Amino acid sequence: MPKGALMSLDRPQTSPDRPQPDPQPHKWLSLSAGIASVLVASTLVGLKLWAVLATGALSVAASLADSAVDLVMSLAAATAILYAARPADDDHAFGHSSAEDLTALAQALLILGSGAYIGWSALQRMISGDSGPIGSEAGGTLVMVASILLTLGLVWWQGRVARLTGSRVVAADRLHYLGDLVPAVGAIIALQASQHLGVRGLDSWVALLAAAIMVMGAARIGKAAWDALMDRRADPALIAAIADLTRSWPGVLGFHDLKTRTSGSRVFVNLHIELDGEQSLRDAHAIGAALRREILARWPQTDVIIHKDVAAKDGQPGT
After folding, report:
1. Which residues pair with 303 in a beta bridge?
2. What phi and psi values does residue 292 have, to the nearest 5 degrees?
């Protein structure tokens, strides 16, 4: 291989100004989402607790339960983000990112339990025909409107952070805050229906809908966390993109055993590339190192190991 070709392979095929990927990408960005989540959840719990005491509405109580669970999970999420960002050590050679998945699984169980309790309470009211007294509808409505505005701001920021970092904990946190919006809107409708139309049975229906949303959200969060803990493969689109890059990389004659697994926001990639066995070890290393750098530059959330094999030649099997 000409010297110039070796030099081009030994550097990333990207802009010279592109920084090298951070082994702990966007740690502080993820943490900012966790802190914002804790602050918003604390504020919402205080506001909704007053609204429940003032109105007695079960739909508002469902929204309060959501926010209380949110607060507990947001505290756990912020802790998990800090722990998961710790570098690998002797006891955890692949890092600590599974803490995110364990936290997300705990979140799912808490959401499931809260949703089941709210749903059961709503069903009991509907069966008994006792809709319960509702008062201070105007004040309760103002609280719910404020909670929606705060939640929308938080969800926007969490969505931005989740897209930039790939953090499963932030994505899970955002998912149940999104789920809070429908019950909050429903609570406003129930309060207004009680205040202006004298309709009170709607409150239980809204609470039942909120419970269903919480249970479905818990199922989605729990499945994603469980898949990661069971070493499920990464997103097929990501696998295909890595395969396409490898297939077209200069000096790579073939590849096999492209394996992936997820752990929190990290994706572990294991890849065997097939190279010309006649070239020097230095040249072979340069090809593999350049490919690895490019994968890390394009997908900073990955952790990549590349094995170099001799490609088959003249009908002889490779190694």
Report:
1. 268
2. -60, -45
pLDDT in tens, 167-185: 666 776 777 677 677 777 7
CA 245 from chain centre, in angstroms, equals 26
Q: Is the pTM of this model over 0.85?
A: no
**Do 66 and 166 reside in the same domain of the chain?**
yes
CA distance 237 to 234: 8
The parent domain of residue 120 ranges over: 27-229
**pLDDT at res. 87:** 61
| Contact present, 271 and 306 (Cβ < 8 Å) | yes
Residues of the chain with pLDDT under 70: 1-27, 56-59, 76-77, 79-100, 125, 129-139, 166-169, 172, 176, 179, 194-204, 228, 231, 264-265, 314-319
CA distance 163 to 240: 19
For the chain, the domain total comes to 2
Backbone angles phi, psi at 34, to 5 degrees: -65, -45
246 and 196 housed in the same domain: no
Q: Where a domain ends, among 186, 210, 229? A: 229
Domain boundary among 229, 245, 279: 229
Mean pLDDT across the chain, nearest whole number?
A: 74
